[in-house]
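Dear Dr. H.,

I hope your travels went smoothly. While you were away I took the liberty of generating a structure for the chain from your last submission, since the lab meeting agenda had it listed for discussion. I wanted you to have the full record in hand beforehand rather than looking at slides cold. The sequence, exactly as received, is reproduced here:
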Amino acid sequence: MRPASFEYHRATSLDHALELLHQFGDEGRPIAGGQSLVPMMNFRLARPGHLVDINRLPLNVIEIDGPVLRIGALTRHIAYFDNPLIAKYFPAFLDAVHYIGHPTIRRNGSIGGSISHADPTAELPAVAVLYDADIVVRSLETTRKINAAEFFLSAYVTALEPGEMVVAIEFPLPPEAYTGSFVELSERSGDFGMASIGITLEFADGAITKAAMVCSGADLFPIRAPEIEEYLVGKPLASPGSAEAGAIFAASIDPADDHIASAEYRRGLIAELTRRAIDIACTRALERS
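The corresponding predicted structure, in token form, is as follows:
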């Protein structure tokens, strides 16, 4: 299929892009790599009347800004693989990037596009929730920060208002004794994930002192697992009870049946991915101890 008719506009500055998006309201959408939006348009699941090309805007940065790592909305997925800041501070983030699509998608897709699209199976929305990131949003008149846990409302639905655009994502810098992991399973490499689990850990004296966990595949948006986060605190890194944690979490969720997997299969898969993610994160913590 072909998309419905639309008008194309090339923004020459951020202010210009925001002026256009303000003018077009619900009919306007920013576009950069188009790896998510264009397929939706081709199937006529999205029908914007105006596309605002933002590729020329200076939003391609990965930099420390005070207490946060700030990633500009136009940063392409491929940029994370060799970035020392991602490798040093956010190992679960780096794990997740390896599951994103195929080389073409990683070269062209942007973090702002992935976050704004809010695909419930996408890796970067889950990473944003895991790391308690803030989504920096601009409109013609305002700038606001929306915590990732409040940004994703449902499948493909976010807290963005008409005329707003994601300009950056801010990840709080972690403490020194900190690590994590991210695991996912799909039918084939590069396909949409059936489920994924991300874990971060703080640790001291061979035990977990704080944990965070995110899951995709159990609901229409990435969800945290506070019961598992609490369960892990105090557990020794050498034997964190990861299988028990997986069973506890699986019993607490209610995934849906779909054309890819049954609810029963997905529940069992999430239990196993939880075990794997915890074990990998604990192994990394022991290596750093």
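Two observations you may find useful: The CA atoms of residues 48 and 87 lie 37 Å apart. The mean pLDDT is 95.

With kind regards,
E. W.
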